[in-house]
Amino acid sequence: MRRFERNASGQLLWMDALGAHVVVPVRAFPLSDPSHGISLLDLHGHEQHWIAHLEALSLADQALLTAVLAEREFRPEIRRLITVSSYSTPSIWQIETDRGATSLVLKGEEDIRRLPDGRLLIGAANGMQFGVEDMNALDKASRRKLDRFL
Length: 150
Description:
2 domains, five-stranded antiparallel β-sheet, three-stranded antiparallel β-sheet, 11 strands, about 15% helix, elongated
């Protein structure tokens, strides 16, 4: 039995014994443990249900919930560093992401965080967060530029 679906407005519906409820999923640990601890909030921000493990849901529900979470969690992935204005900070980076080309201002080297699983989280001066899922997936020139800041 499916527990999730979208309504005509595109909102996520969660079904329980009392009926269908419009909910907004929010990860408890979006960076360190994204598949565990997902809260379903009503439109007023009150928790309606807690999902301890995403894997406990059916594959169809997992796919829908993951898609809804991806829409909510906007974090472009860096695919290539085109240019870096300076190897001292602040510096302006021209980058290519999974959502297109853009630029970011890196205020300081401390704005590049290594996550426990090896991913990088790069915070731009404007508050935008960018990710590097796999350093080895970057081309050699991009890795060389990024290494100068690590």
